[in-house]
Amino acid sequence: MAGAGKERVLSGMRPSGKVHLGNYLGALANWVKLQDELDCYYFVADWHALTDDLDTSDVPGNAVEMVADWLGAGLDPERATLFIQSLVPEHAELHLLFSMTTPVTWLERVPTYRERIEEQHLESPSYGLLGYPLLQSADILMYKPRWVPVGIDQAPHVELTREVARRFNNAFGPVFPEPEVKLTEIPKVPGTDGRKMSKSFDNAIYLSDPPEVVTAKVRPMVTDPARRRRSDPGNPDVCPVFDLHKIFSPAADREWAATGCRTAGIGCLDCKGRLLEHMLPRLAPIRERRQQAAEKPKEIVEILREGSRRAREVAKRTMDDVRRVAPIEP
Ligand code: SF4
Hints:
Low-confidence stretches: none
Order of helices and strands: EHEHHEHHHHHEHEHHHHH
Mean pLDDT: 94
Number of helices: 14
Bound molecules: iron/sulfur cluster
Strand content: 5-15%
Strand order of the largest sheet: 1-2-3
């Protein structure tokens, strides 16, 4: 039985399709590590995707592609429970109850809510957008996890979850333990244009990219902008290619790149070539496993249905506890 007797951990990802290196190094690689130590619940956050776009036609296909990448990265459905948020409708029920106990001002002050309104010039944001962190709290607290693995920028969301739990427990009775943040060190993963790697910037390297595509993306990558000619010394500290060296290359080759850059002893193409020598073998087994998984989408759906069934057993037990302290039915 997956995770029996271990402390529980929960995390989710929106089904935005194929997983890129930023998602992998920022979350997924850590999820894979944790599945040996903890009782892990990882979910496809398909309801959360509706805050981006009300057209749901791509959601099922994107979920399958994303989970193919999860499996490629090494998640094992025998060791971790992989499920779909909307197949566990108890999340929506708990969200509703939390909406009764949580002050609106707590949600209005969440920075990501304000950022979304400003960035997208939203004049009439939906309740779903405002309630997003509350649904996230319900996702988390449903499984009463000891830990929530997040990067430092997500830590305030877990703090909100702790406040939501406290408020509910005070109003009705002690049901929810307050989960703790498990801080994940997230490496800086630049996209090919030097900005943060993101699907929306069209600068991403995907786990599914074959080696020739990775090579074609890395070769023209942005470098230290001050290094215009081969004879100009460069500064690896401001170069996105060197950020990738820090992730993929061993110390000796990082040193080779840094010194060669500063002394103009190497050209940027030499530097990128050495990076690819380390990157491609690391990515090859992940891509091969994800391709094998993607060829059997029905098996992926079956894994998610089975995981959702397991997750629902836990969710039903939690909702029994909730109904005990907050009875409504006659
Ligand atoms: S030599 Fe390497 S680290 Fe230096 S600017 Fe070129 S790509 Fe960047």
